[in-house]
Amino acid sequence: MKLLNQILEHNQTFVETEKYKEFQTSKFPDKKMAILTCMDTRLVELLPQAMNFRNGDVKIVKSAGAVVAHPFGGIMRSLLVAVYELGADEICVVGHHDCGMSKLNAASFLEKAESRGVSAEKIDMLRYSGVHLEEWLKGFDKVEDSVKHSVDVIKNHPLLPDGVPVHGLVIDPATGKLDEVINGYASLSSQEPDQNRLDA
Predict the structure, then answer these.
(1) Which of 101, 109, 185, 199 could lock onto 193 through a cystine, CB 3.0 to 4.6 A?
(2) Band of the pLDDT at 189, cuts 50, 70, 90?
(3) Is residue 91 part of a domain?
(4) How many other C-beta atoms lie within 10 A of the C-beta of residue 102?
(5) Do 47 and 93 fall within a single domain?
(6) Are 171 and 94 in contact (CB under 8 A)?
(7) Residue 125: pLDDT above 50?
(8) Which residue ranges traverse the bilayer (predicted)?
(9) Which residues line the annotated binding site?
């Protein structure tokens, strides 16, 4: 049986047996935080458990490497929607060790694309159109530096309101241990942090 068919078969049972009831919550994050993290499979359940978040507590946005590649791309838009439309008061970028984006190589990536049927002509057309593929497909050497970069892009975005702390953490995908890279409260000069927010 193909995977999609397996998913739909399971889903029918899931709905019929009302398993969804244990996950019911609102669209607003109870702990008023939006998290940008990596799409790594190891973090799907580990990250919320390591951060003590349950279903409904936070908004989670995912991208390869927890990278904000463009200040006006979909990742940044999602974070701003979380703040303005869904009530998030804080943002936290969580990168991780052993990330697939670490040392991503554009030339190797494009070779794999060609081996999967993407023609050299299409790749050349992108270059002629002004797409800087080597920059767009650039990875990072040190996850802490990547987290700092994403925090910086978010924190300095012209549409982010004052008073929104932007934190940066790195998680170990084997143990769940979190290391602080940037404490977003430290950069807020006119606002005292709510120390109890994450303990609610």
Answers:
(1) 185
(2) low
(3) yes
(4) 16
(5) yes
(6) yes
(7) yes
(8) none
(9) 38, 40, 96, 99
